[in-house]
Specification:
Layout: E1 9-12, E2 15-18, H1 23-34, E3 43-48, E4 64-65, E5 83-90, H2 103-109, H3 131-139, E6 148-151, E7 160-162, E8 165-166, H4 167-171, E9 175-177, E10 180-181, H5 188-196, H6 201-214, H7 223-230, H8 235-254, H9 281-297, E11 303-307, H10 326-330, H11 336-362, E12 364-365, E13 368-369, E14 374-379, E15 395-398, E16 409-418, H12 419-430
Parallel strand pairs: 3-11, 3-14, 5-16, 6-11
Antiparallel strand pairs: 1-2, 4-16, 5-15, 7-8, 9-10, 12-13, 14-15
Amino acid sequence: MSNVSRRSVLRGMGAAVALPWLEVMTSRSVRAAANGASKPPVRAAFLFTPNGKRMDEWTPKDEGPMKALPPILESVSAHKDQITLLSRLALDGGSAHGDGPGDHARCVASFLTGAHPRKTNGKNIRNGVSVDQVAAEKIGHLTRFPSLELGCEPSAQAGRCDSGYSCIYTSNMSWRSETSPMTKEVNPQAVFDRLFGGGDSVEKKRNQAERTARRKSILDFVAEDAAALKRKLGAVDQRKLDEYLFAVRQIERRTADADKLRTREIDVPDFPRPAGVPRKIDEHVRLMMDMMVLAMQTDSTRVLSFMYANAGSNRSYPQIKVGSGHHNISHHGGDKKKLADIGKINRHHVSHLNYFLDRLKSVKEAGGTLLDNSMVLYGSGIGDGNRHNHNDLPILLAGRGGGTIKPGRHLSYPKNTPLTNLYRAMLHRLGADVKEYSDSTGRLEGLS
């Protein structure tokens, strides 16, 4: 059993199935820890939702330990002891600063960068480096993928989307450099193949075609390796391996219909965007979250970002009886019906977050769970969609960051505390510390 390491993978005909944390690996890490090595790695996932929130149903009335979660967050009540709510954080980069309208574009472009994007719909885009890419640059060499950028609506490469801002800004929140956004993947099948396919792109296509022709699972091609590994494991690890491989197979089956879930990129001259709901969008979101869990569980990457939708999304939600477009009703003007519908959409998005946290918590590793060893940031770059404000943002942080975060609390900070202060604190916990970042004034205090 001594040769089963955290880096072990199951291989066979172009497949490379990384392993979850097993007890035998824990034993190795415990021995290593005695010699000064680290605990299981800390992971970070950044989840963006559009159009702000209904803040009166998001913000707890009291600071400190949370006895109950506010209405919008009720669906994650089972994870209350893993949640930290952070109030009065701000994105100064999202403000106009003389550039006029365009808050939706700025809220996404600045969400992970803290920067104020140059107002243009041409090629001379300029933004900042996003926190996920700062982390990827620092610790990306430790994993197969420095980072993963995912979403449910395609990234645009050009076009005019929001009051003179390029569609590049509205559809990308991850930026490798000031002029280079990281295009997100929206096809669950492509993410699955990227995580579990081996070899170069030509080999992957050939092997995928052969697996499809034979109607076989990717696991059928690593079965020999899996059987050999099981013979080295104890009863507990054998069960954990079986559960993991079963989960991979189930996700693989669900991704068979991924093409039906793809969204269409539509060139829209300006907001509001036409309402349009891809069929089975909820399944699309859950599949993408399953991919994130697999990537984190197998330590394929420690840095992920996910966009529920692009900026100013005008998707309607008939599955929860909201027929109007999200962006349209976010301009509620105090209308009770619109406010009620915004609350429904907000709660629906949080129900997906609950699914993600459930999955993270179900993965056991090193005496805890994957959620214990993660930091999941969930929020928006706009507070109230009607005001288009970029201060007092709806920001939730889930997980314990490997034991460095004390959750179950509502923390309120001085007015206009930079959101980037939180990112500095997260980078520190990832082992990707920086001396300065964007408009940060220091690491956010009070998390531990």
